[in-house]
């Protein structure tokens, strides 16, 4: 079985990677990676994977995500953790309390680095923001945004999803950056083995 090292302190991201990369062994390494001051998630993913490689000295992946709210000119973008630490999801709901346009999207970028080349995989998950905090805590949760994010084609937040909802959502949504990476990694590894 192919193996990839995933450097992150986010247990939810590790669970997602292990769930989506069933044919690849995901080896989590818990390390705090510093993020450059930019709202470009691709630049942040690049910096994270370069730092990760310096720690593990072997091919690895790092992931960065942002949350973009139309009505707030894209805020909080890549500064999700800062937003959660300051105004929180209640602050987001307050900012949007009088707004009709509640469109938002998660954008994610996974960076792979083997010591020579960096490859990027990106994805988006569109939706809307609920009018109040809804749902329960879950082991799958990787952000408090789960309580206010309603994915496109649904009428409930991720925190209100049951297993069937997650299955339906996985079939309907754009392929994730993790899944795109997995397909590429397996096919490129096969090519390298044949040489």
TrEMBL record:
Any GO BP annotation:
nucleoside triphosphate catabolic process
One Pfam family from the record: Ham1p_like
Return the InterPro entries for the record: ITPase-like_fam, RdgB/HAM1
This protein's source sits in the domain of life called: Bacteria
- Gene Ontology CC annotations of this record: cytoplasm
- Name the UniProt key words of this record, in alphabetical order: Hydrolase
Q: Does the keyword Hydrolase apply?
A: yes
Q: SUPFAM superfamilies recorded for this chain?
A: ITPase-like
TM ranges are: none
Q: What is this protein called?
A: Uncharacterized protein
Q: Which organism is it from?
A: Niallia circulans (Bacillus circulans)
